[in-house]
């Protein structure tokens, strides 16, 4: 797959404060890529750099191999679905979607240099088709303030897509919707992306959303990119404790890498699958709550006392105090608080992370904040 | 940096030029005239001459003060009652409050003149009962009446607009917490309406203290105010623009001083509310 | 409860009586046969007939309307552009400009009038530019006191506007000028209109500032009225006021009704 958009050492300062720190990112044609991170991490700024709303202080941005740093937003083959939609309140649904088409100029005929407006009849068909695609057939004459959040969302998508952009930028588009609607729209968006073959660049702070929808996820923090990879990569092989914690609730404990494939934490040694660390190097050990098994105390690798049990629907969230740490465990079996239990792991449940790298990045993140 | 900001700011350039030519320079000219004599030489004579008119200045402040207090006393309950009325009726009341402002204030003041005259309607009506005629026109009372009448809507409207934002729920919550009517008023309604009170006071006091029409029409010759004094220096017999400019400058400083005092009061109030 | 509401209604009635008494008297006596405003001598429509042949009143009414329209239009254009620019300024610059803008509103009108008079005299006498007091100076003065009201009406609308709307227009292919025309202007239109109406009505009604910048040959209606009050107001003015009052009453009632209807519609 070829790269459609390339960001090279992009840095952005706002009022002398650095919000993006020499970002390098390649976005491939027709992929669904998500910029994920907590608020203030620089994900929206990155998106606005691509949209042309923010000028880079340093670095270059290429679109299809051409440098577009100085190209204003209205000349870019990119459209945006804005946070809280930014629909035009003085226009109805049809007029909102038609807005971009009325401005667009197309060649009079194939290969002609003569640019003309899109004829009205053609515009009308295009808008109708697009409203159908997003499931808003028959809503043409509605006012924007008569629509629900989900419907406004669909209008915003239709308005951006009807211009046939090469890339669609989406800035937390589902943030204002309730949980159920959000789930529906996630599937819907994925369907639209696949049926149109348009590259989607999606910004969110919701890790679950990022994992369900994306081909690739870019995890950002404090103006830096921490990790780029498929959802599986990011989830299973987080590069450091921050990513691990952000991507899903995790148990993170300090440990020491005694030798390759052997790590010590919680007062004992464990076999693991990681290697390539210095002998006796201090590391972060990350273990997912669903990877720990609760077993009778005598069968456990280490033990603890059940502190609390919370029913979460699919599973119980069990907190166990043992070996100087609160372990969060997801289990389908109920445990009586106060009981003495054992815990068990397999070697590939243990993820080892470089501690220095994490510390360094955390310090930088604190600077940015 | 964000794009387009510098270009957008440029749209205000025509206004900025206008502002400098027609607002800033004229005020500088007032200052210049206040400190020079007719030959253009620097002098403090105009400013010291203002001292001769202390009686006029105090009369203006005193009458404007009484009118402002009366407006506040009349408007406060009225604005509160309107703000608690049903929506549709609120609109009608507001309309009724604003409507008189559409008739030129000279005519409204003139109407009072004919009402208050010694041979006017009020005295004729009183005459039927064998009272009077009372001397109402050309008194300080008539001037205050004219001010209250003309500027009352300026007090009602800002009060109403802050009071209508006080939710009924807030008042109910205070009652629910056991506050008697008087406490609801002093601890909820009054503090929340304070910004409106301040705006109203400014909007009544400023035109009242500087008026020259009301005092001339209802006060006769003997109740001269700062406004009359200024007018006389520019368009009247006393023609002396330098003195007029000095009095204007004094009036401006007086107003700015009063307003900053009010603002300070208001700010202290806000702090009090946060605590 | 019942008793309280009677007290409330009674109080409102009392204040309204105070506000309307002189107006009612004026309207009633516009139908009075004699010139007296205290003695009723009989019903007549003469004053209304005379009003439409009174050259002085009619020509100053024309001047007033002309000045109000011209100055309100110019003030609205300059003020709206100014508001857009001010809204995009940095904090320091914005507060400087806005505070200067408030000056003519805070300042007593008489000071604004006097300062403009000094400016025009200065331009005429010291700079030798033949600027006579009259139509032009009135227009300039009215624009000056109107612009701040336009700005103060438009700026809140710009603040309320979703900033992304402008970006969205650029995103959909508008250049900055088109984006303003197609998206920003329609969005702030209510503020622009109320600014225009305020400018227009203040211009119609202004006496104090006009008094200082008008000349002997050109006067607006309020100035004519003032000249009359110094002698004796002719009842034709009462007739005119009554007409104005009825027209305004009609317009406000109608717009009130329309607004109430629209609100009822959007609330559901």
Q: What is the 3D shape of chain C? A: globular
> How helical, in percent, are the residues of chain C?
over 70%
Secondary-structure-based class of chain B equals: mainly alpha
Shape of chain B: globular
H-E string of chain B: HHHHHHHHHHHHH
Mean pLDDT of chain B: 87
What is the topology?
The complex is a heterotrimer of chains A (369), B (275) and C (268).
Chain A: E1 3-14, E2 17-28, E3 32-36, H1 43-51, E4 58-63, E5 66-67, E6 78-81, H2 93-103, E7 105-107, E8 115-117, H3 120-133, H4 149-161, E9 167-171, H5 179-196, E10 199-204, H6 207-213, E11 216-221, E12 224-229, H7 231-236, H8 241-247, E13 251-259, E14 262-265, E15 268-271, E16 281-287, E17 293-296, E18 302-311, E19 316-322, E20 325-331, E21 340-344, E22 351-354, H9 355-368
Parallel strand pairs in A: 3-10, 3-11, 6-9, 9-10
Antiparallel strand pairs in A: 1-2, 1-4, 4-5, 7-8, 11-12, 13-14, 13-16, 14-15, 16-22, 17-21, 18-19, 18-21, 19-20
Chain B: H1 5-10, H2 13-34, H3 45-49, H4 54-83, H5 87-98, H6 105-116, H7 121-128, H8 140-163, H9 168-176, H10 181-210, H11 213-219, H12 226-235, H13 241-274
Chain C: H1 2-29, H2 46-51, H3 55-87, H4 91-106, H5 109-125, H6 135-160, H7 164-171, H8 176-205, H9 208-213, H10 221-230, H11 235-267
Helix pairs in contact in C: 1-11, 3-6, 3-8, 3-10, 4-6, 6-8, 7-8
């Amino acid at each position: 797959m070829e790269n459609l958009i390339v960001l090279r050492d992009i840095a952005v300062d706002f009022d002398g404060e650095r919000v993006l720190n020499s970002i390098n990112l390649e976005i491939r044609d027709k992929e669904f890529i998500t910029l994920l991170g907590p608020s203030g991490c620089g994900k929206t700024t990155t998106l606005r750099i691509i949209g042309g709303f923010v000028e880079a202080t340093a670095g270059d941005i290429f679109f299809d191999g051409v440098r577009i740093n100085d190209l204003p937003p209205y000349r870019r083959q990119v459209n945006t679905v804005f946070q809280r939609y930014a629909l035009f309140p003085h226009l109805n649904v049809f007029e909102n979607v038609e807005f971009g088409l009325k401005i667009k100029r197309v060649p009079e005929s194939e290969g002609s240099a003569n640019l003309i407006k899109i004829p009205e009849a053609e515009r009308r068909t295009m808008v109708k088709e697009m409203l159908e695609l997003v499931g808003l057939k028959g809503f043409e004459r509605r006012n924007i303030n008569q629509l629900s959040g989900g419907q406004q969302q669909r209008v915003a998508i239709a308005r951006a897509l009807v211009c046939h952009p090469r890339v669609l930028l989406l800035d937390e588009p589902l943030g204002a919707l309730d949980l159920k609607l959000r789930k529906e729209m996630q599937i819907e968006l994925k369907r639209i992306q696949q049926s149109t073959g348009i590259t989607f660049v999606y910004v969110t702070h919701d890790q679950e959303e990022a994992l369900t929808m994306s081909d690739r996820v870019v995890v950002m923090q404090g103006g830096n990119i921490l990790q780029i990879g498929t959802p599986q990569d990011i989830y299973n092989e987080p590069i450091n404790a921050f990513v691990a914690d952000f991507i899903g609730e995790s148990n993170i404990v300090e440990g020491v890498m005694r030798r390759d494939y052997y790590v010590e934490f919680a007062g004992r040694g464990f076999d693991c699958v990681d290697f390539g660390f210095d002998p006796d190097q201090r590391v972060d050990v990350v273990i997912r709550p669903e990877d720990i098994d609760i077993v009778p105390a005598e069968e456990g690798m280490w033990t603890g006392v059940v502190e609390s049990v919370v029913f979460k629907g699919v599973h119980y969230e069990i907190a166990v105090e043992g070996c100087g740490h609160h372990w969060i465990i997801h289990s389908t079996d109920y445990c009586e608080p106060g009981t003495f239990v054992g815990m068990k792991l397999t070697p590939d449940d243990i993820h080892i992370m470089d501690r220095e790298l994490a510390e360094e990045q955390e310090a930088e993140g604190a600077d940015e904040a | 940096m964000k794009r387009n900001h510098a270009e957008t700011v440029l749209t205000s350039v025509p206004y900025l030029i206008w502002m400098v030519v027609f607002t800033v320079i004229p005020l500088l000219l007032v200052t210049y005239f206040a400190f020079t004599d007719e030959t253009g030489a620097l002098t403090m004579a105009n400013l010291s001459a203002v001292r001769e008119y202390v009686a006029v200045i105090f009369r203006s402040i005193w009458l404007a003060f009484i009118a402002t207090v009366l407006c506040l006393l009349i408007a406060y309950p009225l604005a509160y009652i309107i703000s608690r009325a049903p929506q549709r009726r609120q609109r009608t009341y507001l309309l009724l409050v604003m409507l008189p402002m559409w008739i030129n204030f000279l005519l409204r003041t003139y109407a009072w003149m004919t009402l208050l005259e010694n041979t006017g309607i009020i005295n004729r009506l009183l005459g039927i009962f064998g009272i009077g005629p009372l001397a109402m026109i050309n008194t300080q009372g008539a001037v205050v009446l004219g001010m209250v009448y003309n500027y009352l809507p300026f007090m009602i409207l800002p009060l109403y607009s802050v009071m209508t934002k006080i939710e009924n729920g807030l008042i109910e919550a205070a009652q629910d917490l056991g506050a008697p009517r008087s406490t609801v008023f002093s601890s909820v309604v009054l503090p929340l309406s304070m910004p409106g009170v301040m705006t109203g006071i400014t909007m009544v006091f400023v035109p009242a203290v500087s008026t020259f029409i009301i005092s001339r029409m209802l006060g006769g010759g003997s109740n001269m105010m700062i406004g009359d004094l200024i007018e006389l220096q520019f368009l009247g017999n006393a023609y002396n623009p330098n003195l007029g400019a000095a009095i204007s400058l004094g009036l401006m400083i007086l107003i700015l001083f009063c307003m900053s005092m009010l603002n300070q009061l208001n700010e202290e109030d806000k702090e009090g509310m946060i605590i | 409860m019942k008793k309280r509401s009677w007290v409330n209604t009674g109080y409102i009635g009392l204040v309204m009586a105070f506000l309307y008494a002189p107006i009612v008297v004026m309207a009633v006596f516009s139908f009075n046969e004699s010139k007296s405003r205290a003695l009723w001598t009989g019903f007549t429509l003469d004053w209304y007939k005379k009003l439409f042949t009174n050259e002085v009143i009619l020509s100053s009414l024309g001047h007033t309307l002309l000045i109000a329209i011209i100055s309100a239009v110019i003030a609205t254009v300059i003020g709206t552009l100014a508001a857009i620019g001010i809204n995009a300024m940095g904090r320091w610059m914005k507060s400087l400009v806005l505070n200067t803008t408030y000056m003519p509103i805070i300042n007593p009108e008489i000071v604004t009038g006097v300062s403009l008079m000094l400016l025009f005299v200065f331009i005429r006498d010291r700079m030798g530019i033949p600027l006579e007091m009259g139509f032009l100076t009135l227009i300039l003065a009215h624009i000056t006191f109107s612009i701040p009201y336009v700005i103060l009406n438009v700026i809140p609308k710009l603040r309320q506007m979703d900033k992304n709307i402008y970006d969205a227009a650029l995103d959909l292919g508008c250049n900055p000028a088109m984006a303003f025309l197609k998206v920003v202007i329609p969005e702030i239109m209510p503020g622009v209109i109320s600014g225009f109406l305020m400018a227009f009505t203040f211009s119609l009604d202004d006496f104090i500032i006009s008094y200082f910048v008008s000349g002997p040959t050109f006067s607006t209606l309020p100035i004519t009225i003032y000249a009359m009050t110094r002698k004796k107001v002719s009842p034709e003015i009462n007739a005119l006021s009554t007409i104005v009052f009825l027209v305004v009453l009609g317009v406000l009632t109608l717009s009130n009704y329309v607004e109430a209807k629209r609100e009822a519609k959007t609330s559901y």
